[in-house]
Design a protein that fits this description.
This protein is of the alpha+beta class and 158 residues long. The chain has one domain. A 5-stranded mixed β-sheet has the order 1-4-3-2-5. Strand 3 and strand 4 form a beta hairpin. The protein is globular and about 40 Å long. It starts with a strand and ends in a 16-residue tail after the last strand.
Length: 158
C-alpha cells in the first residue's frame, strides 16, 4: 500500500486542476457542512480547510509546510474525501478511484495499491494504517467507482 505522493506531484499534476469548477463546488459544499455544523461558520470559495485547523499537529514541524497541507484539516476526512475523489479522477483519470469509508476514516483508493489521501499522509500515518482505518473499522464500506460519499453536518461529540 502506498500514498499518491501529493508533495512530489503538486506542481505538475495537481495544481493544473485546482481551478476546476466542480472540484471547488464539492469542497465548498462538503466542508461547509463541517464548519457550519461545528462552529456555525461558513466555508466559502477561497477558504482553505487549513484555515479552520483547531488541532496542533503541525506546530512542531520546522521549515515550510508542503503546499498540499492547505487542504488538510485534522478530523475532517469525511468532509474532504469527495474533493479528494474528484481531484484523483482529474489527476489520474485512467485509475478506477473510489471512496472507502468507515466510522474511523474515509479515503480514496485506486482498487490496487494507491491511496489518494490528504489528512493521513500529512499526519504521517502509514498507508497500511490508513487503509485499515477505512476498510476494517466499524461500518466499513466501499463505494462504487467514482461515487461520492453523502456527508452530513458535523456534530460535536463532547
Amino acid at each position: 500500500m502506498e500514498y499518491y505522493d501529493l508533495k512530489r506531484h503538486w506542481t505538475k499534476r495537481i495544481m493544473p486542476h485546482l481551478g476546476d469548477t466542480e472540484l471547488n463546488k464539492i469542497l465548498v459544499r462538503d466542508f461547509n457542512k463541517f464548519t457550519r455544523g461545528l462552529w456555525k461558520k461558513e466555508f466559502v470559495a477561497g477558504d482553505m480547510p487549513a484555515d479552520f485547523e483547531s488541532c496542533d499537529w503541525r506546530f512542531d514541524i520546522r521549515g515550510p509546510y508542503p503546499r498540499y497541507w492547505e487542504y488538510v484539516k485534522h478530523a475532517a476526512c469525511h468532509w474532504i474525501c469527495n474533493f479528494s475523489l474528484r481531484l484523483a479522477i482529474l489527476v489520474e483519470p485512467e485509475r478506477p478511484w473510489r471512496i472507502i469509508t468507515s466510522d474511523a476514516h474515509s479515503t480514496v483508493w485506486d482498487g490496487k495499491t494507491t491511496l489518494f489521501d490528504f489528512n493521513y499522509q500529512a499526519l504521517g500515518i502509514t498507508p497500511k494504517d490508513c487503509y485499515k482505518a477505512a476498510r476494517k473499522a466499524r461500518r466499513a464500506r466501499m463505494l462504487p467507482i467514482g461515487k461520492q460519499l453523502r456527508v452530513h453536518y458535523a456534530i460535536r461529540n463532547f
